[in-house]
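Q: How would the structure tokens look for this protein?
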Amino acid sequence: MSTQASRSATAEDPKTFTACFSIVASSDPNALSRILEPFTKRGLTPSHVYALCTGPVLEVLHVDLQLQNADAETAWRLANDLRGLYLVQTVLTSEKRHADNG
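A: Here is the predicted structure in token form.
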């Protein structure tokens, strides 16, 4: 297989990226499962999940999630669903794309 052909075979779809979500929610025993629910309903497994409670009495939950091979429509819908959760105060989104080395 030529070098060019192998690059094409392994190239990432330019329409997909790693969607990143940073969520601030009230610390509640149900918060993390509710935050993961929009992913579960779509049959998606986040590639990265990090959760941390902060504050004087651990009243704030910070969750960082990443979803590899996401598309813009799915990322937008997930963020919108997360913003609609009653425990969620803030949802920030960003995306990571791989540089083209070809």
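DSSP finds three helices and four strands in the chain.

The longest strand covers residues 60-70.

Upvote if useful.
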